[in-house]
Recover the amino acids of this structure.
């Protein structure tokens, strides 16, 4: 059952999010799916999905941070700082829930993540994807998009 306050806030994976780096695209799809579950789940499941996101975020951002460090990515500091800011917010919201605050705060975080992600992916992650593919393949990625959305 979807919380009506966020009924129009669905966050769905679309080919427009593809960057041409398979591992990054797969991780980004998982990011979108978890955030969408946080937006649509009943209030009693929010803490569980927030915990799931925390595990995902640590792994997701750690992997990207490692790629940047290993390849001396030029915009590394700004990118890593954004990851750290997201995880700081995630940990703060988890603590608020542990302190008995309204679970809706986790849904608010999910809504902010849904707003944040497209810009982050379009600018910082797309540059990283191009950098990684160019380093390993000698050229920028080719991305085929069907302009279709898929809801899991």
């Amino acid at each position: 059952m979807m919380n009506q306050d966020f009924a129009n806030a669905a966050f769905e994976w679309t080919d427009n999010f593809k960057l041409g780096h398979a591992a990054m695209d797969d991780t980004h799809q998982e990011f979108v799916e978890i955030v969408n579950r946080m937006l649509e789940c009943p209030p009693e499941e929010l803490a569980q999905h927030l915990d799931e996101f925390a595990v995902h975020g640590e792994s997701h951002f750690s992997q990207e941070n490692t790629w940047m460090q290993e390849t001396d990515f030029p915009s590394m500091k700004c990118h890593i700082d954004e990851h750290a800011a997201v995880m700081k917010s995630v940990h703060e919201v988890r603590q608020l829930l542990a302190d008995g605050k309204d679970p809706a705060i986790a849904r608010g975080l999910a809504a902010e993540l849904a707003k944040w992600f497209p810009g982050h992916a379009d600018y910082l992650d797309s540059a990283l994807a191009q950098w990684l593919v160019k380093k390993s393949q000698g050229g920028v990625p080719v991305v085929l998009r069907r302009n279709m959305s898929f809801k899991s």
Notes: The domain at 15-139 is CATH 1.20.120.50 (Four Helix Bundle (Hemerythrin (Met), subunit A)). The first strand starts at residue 13 and ends at 14.
